[in-house]
Amino acid sequence: MFYTIPTLMTLARIVAIPLIIGVYYLPMAQENRNLVATSMFVLFAFTDWLDGYLARKLNQTSAFGAFLDPVADKFLVCAALLMLVEMHRVHVLVALVIIGREIAISALREWMAQLGAGKSVAVHMVGKLKTTVQMVAIPFLLFDGMLFNLIDTRQWGEVLILLATLLTIWSMVYYIRKALPEIRARVK
User: Fold this and answer.
1) How far apart are CA 124 and CA 140, in angstroms?
2) Contact 175, 111 (CB under 8 A)
3) What is the dihedral of CA 184, 174, 165, 142, to 10 degrees?
4) 3-state DSSP call for residue 115?
5) How do residues 24-34 score in pLDDT, each as one tens digit?
6) What is the pTM of this model?
7) Alpha-helix residue ranges (DSSP H) falling in the chain
């Protein structure tokens, strides 16, 4: 069950990272780079939903897929954030908060799983909301222009990435609070 369609889609998200970054080093107009990188990010972000759907629909769920899926998402988001910092479209503090939370909560989940208390830090709606806002903010910031001559994606992206940062902090606090009783019980 290693080479299933859902697993290959997840792996494609990881492979896409240098391709998306590489777009910004191509000899073309900045607007074209923005459009291509945004399109690629949206396409590969969509595979996050699609691979999960297909895994369930085709009965191709696996422990490896369950492990790899969030890793691929975090790589994709972190790489995009670092590019946005490099292009001065996201403040480095915002990127540090978001990336730092991903590392901290991943470590917390691993620790809780080792303690047999993984369910205490299972994915919650606030984490899903945080991810959704990030996945909308990032393409807006990558595009960095007027969409349909109506929407200033830089302005909306900046608002959304700040909202994502607040949701990031909220979700981190939520998961830590959920884990604290188990941590206290084990540390004594």
Assistant:
1) 25
2) no
3) 110
4) coil
5) 999 999 999 99
6) 0.85
7) 5-23, 30-57, 63-86, 92-114, 125-143, 153-187
